[in-house]
Amino acid sequence: MTRFDKPTRANQVGADEELVEIILAGQGEVFARLYERYYLRTYRLAYGMTGQREVAEDLTQEIFLRAYQKLGQFQGKSLFATWFYRLTVNHCLQHRQRTHTNTEQTVDDLEQAIPPLRCATFTMREAETAIMQQQTQEFIHKALLSLKPDLRMVVILRNLEGLSYEEIAERMSCSVGTVGTRLHRAHKLLAQKLEKLRGEY
Amino acid sequence: MRLPKLTDLALAWRCRRYRKLIWRYVDGVLDMEQRILLNVHFPQCPRCQAEFEELRFARLQISLLQLPNDAQIKFPQWLNEEAISSQPRIQEKFAWPRWAVTAVATAALVLLASTLAWYLRQPIPQGWQVTRLAGAPVVGTATLVKNGEMKVGEWLETNGLSRALVQVGKIGHVEIEPGSRVQLLVAQNDNHRLSLVKGRMHASIVAPPRLFFIETPSAVAIDYGCAYTLEVDESGASTLQVTAGWVSLQALDQNAGRESLVPAGAMCNAQPKKGPGTPFFSDASGKFRRALDQLDFWDGGSAALTILLAEAHKRDSLTLFHLLSRVKLPERERVYVRLSAFVPPPAGLTLESFLRPENAEKFDEWREQVEFVSVGGNPADLPKTTGTLRLTGTLNVARHSHSATLLTDGRVLVAGGVEQDKGPLDSSEIYDPKTGQFTLAGRLTIKRGGHTATRLTDGRVLLVGGGNLRGLASAETYDPATGTFRAVGNMSVPRVGHRATLLPDGKVLITGGQQNDQNKLASAELFDPATNSFALVGSMQTPRTDHTATLLKNGFVLIAAGGNSGSFDDGPIASAELYDPAKKSFIPTGALNVPRYKHAAALLPDGRVIVLGGTSIRLWEDRKASAEIYDPATGKFTTTGNLNTARYKIRDAVLLLPNGKILVAGGGARPEIFDPATGIFSSVSGGLGVARQYATATLLPNGEVLILGGYLYGLPNLTADLSAWLYRP
User: Fold this and answer.
1) How confident is the model at residue A7, as a pLDDT?
2) Is residue B212 within 8 Å of B238, Cβ to Cβ?
3) For residues B378 and B701, is the Cβ–Cβ distance under 8 A?
4) A1, B135, B360, B409: which one has the fewest Cβ atoms less than 10 Å from its Cβ?
5) Distance from the Cα of residue B669 to its chain's centroid
6) Inter-residue contact B323 to B301 (CB < 8 Å)
7) Helix ranges, chain A (H)
8) Could A140 and B91 be called an inter-chain contact, meaning their C-beta atoms sit closer than 8 Å?
9) How far from each other are the two terminal CA atoms of chain A, in whole angstroms?
10) One-character DSSP codes across B190-251
């Protein structure tokens, strides 16, 4: 097979592993295809972990850059997806330690973020509703951000991305039992933090 | 006779194995058998149920979080640059040489070992107070004169004449009798552990279960909140005698051997290397006890069992129950037959089927009866789960704060209500019990939620007030003949949180409610179906909203509690009053024991009224489990048994069943049945999945109850759902 065959293959939808092969063979720009495939999933995770769009975008870029640089270490022993997700998870978990930006919220922050749920019986105005939903989202996300990164990660992977315990264990390099324990612990903490959201009117 | 402590403690014991499963249940990854186990367990254990609801709540909330799905893919600049400047290359992974790995591992081990050795040599300051009671007890190497401290690892010895009292942290004390040898193993707040090598001691512990442990050469005694005596003889065999509460006797190796839960009044032996035997009551006959000893420890077999069964009395049911799962067929059959004679098993629980997982519920029920009988109770006094729930058709529109009214032809009109935060609805649907389906029906004249619905004597349904963006003064009727809604006269004021009561003369009494957040209403009016109009009657003594109004057998209407202060955080009140139909005015009557708001009330068959649940301020956290009964003869409220689950927002979900019991359907995940004869609430088998607020319960002509709608506990924006159930008593 000559070198000139490869760009044509890269233009087709090939398996991730094939793309890696092509990139490593010298077609660096083919990485853009992997980038497209994995961008949204990576961005969602980064956003879930940080709660800020700009930070999440930066983090996503860092992850892809790192994946690109380390691509040579991918030896095809596992699926590319597995390898990439592990890298993503590790990078997200390390993110806080490296930048020293404290994403863990204090209780005061949470109190300030409590949405005004004290709306009267059926006097809830529709205009307020949209704002309330936004605030509810922020409130839930802040509670999530107040968890330690490893707990936050299992919650995002399980509750928001709907992965199985086995898949999570693989990405976080831990046992299935640990995933369950972490989920249990995370939800106990979340229940306390979200207490004030319980439906009232 | 009822022994309240008994079940509480037994529950704490069971929770041990359930706790681990709860999260997996919430997360939907638990297998069927274990789900059954938990379903049986929850109604009996408020703590596990609370944990379940808490986790479920958190999971629901988090699932509402939306991660961005629409992020623009920005093609990164660096990719071009990197791709040009430095291509990734296949890299040979650097592998550490084997000798280096071994060297590092060895170094780490040595470091760990020396740290551990250093740590173990450190004195641990914590210890327990010891007081001399008699003679000269020795702690460590020092003879105790008056008071002293026993440190972790130290021994306490009493000779033939001395006795000592050891304070077990802050949770109780242990009295050491003469001739004993005791070592303090662990002194932590969550783990108090002694070793009794020989002698006798009396423990008295007031603490949550599983904080205090005594190890003997043959077993571990684990405290479940109790008082007991533990004795160890020269051979290392132990005897446990429980005087109050429960104690678990476990094999030293937790994974091997048996575990015996010993109730007050019972005893249990343990042998070294064989672990604990079967619990028995101290008044069992000598022959019974010797036979049990043979069975437990010396391969007694069939001959011993024959003696045991012949000697067994009703009180020995507990022993037989334990033996049931310890002996094998064909002996098991003999135990089953004998035990069944003392405490008949629940219907359908046969010898062949009692260990099957689908019978877990019945097996638990049987065990409870046996435990109850063993402590002298009558199984008929035990609260039982009653009735069953099953899903029926699905609503077309999710609703809470709606109304569900039985029509004369047996169908049910479901009208208005609120679907999530979109505001009230003007749709209606009809449930047909024959098909089990909901069909959309006519539109209301205006959107209503939190209104009242009353079936008039002419078959029409009167819908009154409720909320749109604010309270409504309007009313309308549904005519089943035409299937349409038609406006009738207006009330004098808009009302939400009011009550409507059909009077014997066919008129409808509308009481209280609120005009808006600020104005609670004392006024009342009568709807006359003949003229389709409202007329004011005398006002109540106190303005109130979200109260209850119950027609008594004497034609008076009992108005109980409610919220009355002008502010948003409605101050709940305890007062009650009666509507006198002759004078068309209200007179005061006895007050409730507790102020209540958003509670429910129902007329009992004997003419009294049960008032239950509610909250004291607006919060979920303050919802009440208490209930009280109003007696029209005395005009007084008397407290009765508590609900198993605290509930509020249940105004239309509580009703009298044809069997004379009261169904409480909303506000919690599992409905409950109140039996006026015993004053006890018991949970219904199965559940509504999650607590539902402002659900409705409607009695159908065939005696079943249609339960539907409500907003799901834990979801913000008061998300209602589509499900509907049938309860069959």
Assistant:
1) 36
2) no
3) no
4) A1
5) 9
6) no
7) 5-11, 16-24, 31-50, 53-70, 80-99, 107-112, 126-145, 149-155, 165-172, 176-194
8) no
9) 70
10) TEEEEEEEEEEEEEEE-SSSSSEEEE-SS-EEEESS-EEEEEE-TTS-EEEEEEESEEEEE-
B515 within 8 A of B521, measured Cβ to Cβ: yes
Residue B453's pLDDT is 97
Which tokens belong to B432? Answer: 């047909």
Three-state SS at B507: coil
Cβ of A53 within 8 Å of Cβ of B54? The answer is: no
pLDDT, residue B256, reads 61
> pLDDT-derived band of residue A117, with 50, 70 and 90 as boundaries?
very low
Shortest CA gap B51–chain A (Å) = 8
C-alpha angle A162/A164/A167, rounded to 5°? 110
Q: How many residues does chain B have?
A: 729
Q: Are B54 and A118 a contacting pair at CB < 8 A?
A: no
How many beta carbons lie within 10 A of that of residue B153, not counting itself?
15
Going by their DSSP bridges, the two strands B191-205 and B212-215 should be labelled as parallel
DSSP per-residue string spanning A80-100: HHHHHHHHHHHHHHHHHHHH-
| Band (A171; pLDDT cuts 50, 70, 90) | confident
Residue among A118, A144, A188 whose CB faces B65 most closely: A144
B60: which chain A residues are within 8 Å (Cβ-Cβ)? none
Tokens 């551990």 correspond to B116
Q: Strand, coil or helix: what is A153?
A: helix
State residue B55 phi and psi, 5-degree precision.
-65, -40
For chain B, list residues with pLDDT below 50. Answer: 1-4, 92-93, 122-125, 567-568
Both structure tokens of B454: 């009353």
Chain A interface mutation, best of B62, B468, B516, highest count of A Cβ atoms under 10 Å: B62
Q: Which of A137, A183, A201 sits opposite B65 (nearest CB)?
A: A137
**CA–CA separation, A157 vs A167, rounded Å?**
9
> How long a stretch of residues is chain A?
201
Q: Please report how the helices B32-41 and B4-26 are oriented relative to each other, as an axis angle in degrees rounded to 10.
A: 140
Rounded to 5 degrees, φ, ψ at B192 are -110, 120
Nearest CA in chain A to B710: A199
Distance between CA atoms of residues B166 and B670, nearest Å: 46
Confirm if B691 and B667 have CB atoms less than 8 A apart: yes
Q: What pTM was estimated for this model as a whole?
A: 0.46
